[in-house]
């Protein structure tokens, strides 16, 4: 016959189990929490580097989710020639009207592939129609201020505050204006004055610019203009060399008049350096949307300019 466990022995067995096994159970639970795999990070949408031509025809809506109220579609874009910053999006609206809307009033939504704006239909209708021949009316105030300051400085130097410019030239420096006049007389025809570079240009105009390298080689025209939508600027020019698109930072290009009185983009690198532009790969990044590839391009062209 088995002897029954006394109450005292039963109490001692329960106490030993509690003091030895309970901590082990808690430790197992902690370890299970620590080794549990983390949830996969939510996929981040594209950084917003887009071919400008892809954005033509994109809808402008009030709400990106519902997209029920359509304000219009993007027809064109207006850029600052020197910096590539987008100042306006040209948007078509009802009745065949097109309006230049300040770029800050449109927001790009990568997932829905639309622009949104808080403007109303009435506000759009009240805006003047877009006239590509009068881009000077769209020049931002801070750029106009620079021109005004330069004109004011020149006026001060020629004005009552000092000696007239003609008298300063008579004191020693040759009168270049008279030399130019004599040249014109010898050549038999007047030479036109240099026109100021247009402050603004449209997308179609910029893509029509001839692109010339530092060694005076024409490499063609832009096949792509890659926009940084976050900064609202042209980040890269896509130039086709044979069957390859070479992306060159817009910061290396200087818009200027050529001998044919057309605006061209003059790159600060040679034709050979353009042809040797790093191409997407697993090593340097797999495309213009990849920040590693963009860093690779920036480093390459920075070194190319510094090696001159």
Which characteristics define this entry?
308 residues; alpha+beta; SH3 type barrels; Photosynthetic Reaction Center, Chain H, domain 2; 7-stranded mixed sheet; 4-stranded antiparallel sheet; 15 strands; disordered N terminus
Task: Give your account of this protein's structure.
It is a single chain. This protein is an alpha+beta fold and 308 residues long. Among the domains are: 49-132, PRC-barrel domain (SH3 type barrels); 204-306, Photosynthetic Reaction Center, Chain H, domain 2 (Alpha-Beta Complex), CATH 3.90.50.10. Helices cover 31% and strands 25% of the residues. It contains 8 helices and 15 strands. Strands 2, 3, 4, 5, 6, 7 and 8 form a 7-stranded mixed β-sheet that branches. Strands 1-11-12-13 form a 4-stranded antiparallel β-sheet. The protein has a 4-stranded mixed β-sheet with strand order 10-9-15-14, with no helix packed on it. A hairpin with a 5-residue loop joins strand 4 and strand 5. The longest helix is centred in the first third of the chain and has 29 residues, at 7-35. The chain is flat and about 55 Å long. The N and C termini lie far apart (104 Å). The model is unreliable at 1-5, 9-46 and 147-183 (pLDDT under 50).
